[in-house]
Amino acid sequence: xxxxxxxxxxxxxxxxxxxxxxxxxxxxxxxxxxxxxxxxxxxxxxxxxxxxxxxxxxxxxxxxxxxxxxxxxxxxxxxxxxxxxxxxxxxxxxxxxxxxxxxxxxxxxxxxxxxxxxxxxxxxxxxxxxxxxx
Length: 134
Description:
About 45% of the residues lie in helices and about 15% in strands. It is an alpha+beta fold. A three-stranded antiparallel β-sheet has the order 1-2-3, with helices on both faces. Strand 1 (about 60-65) and strand 2 (about 70-80) form a beta hairpin. The chain starts with 11 loop residues before the first helix and ends in a 10-residue tail after the last helix.
């Protein structure tokens, strides 16, 4: 739904963000969001932890039918030139439109676009002034 707010980890893009954080931050977020994730019964702490492990191993997230039945979604983190997490990028479609493509092909396209966005983000930022840290 347009403008809907979901807990971090509910959806491919936000799961990509969550997986990119360090373990202590993840545990803090899971603990703080426990009441909010009850609205999404498929997104248990165990499911989220497994999604994080898978994302770290594969380099992308995959959410199949957990948010919307028959919806497949993939997500990747976007980092700046220093490797800091700045955003995520995701693609979602009904299963019949995505299942004809391999996961790796979709993930590869997302990674390429994420790299482009990262470069564009860097080129539009003004250089820091003397004494300013970024």
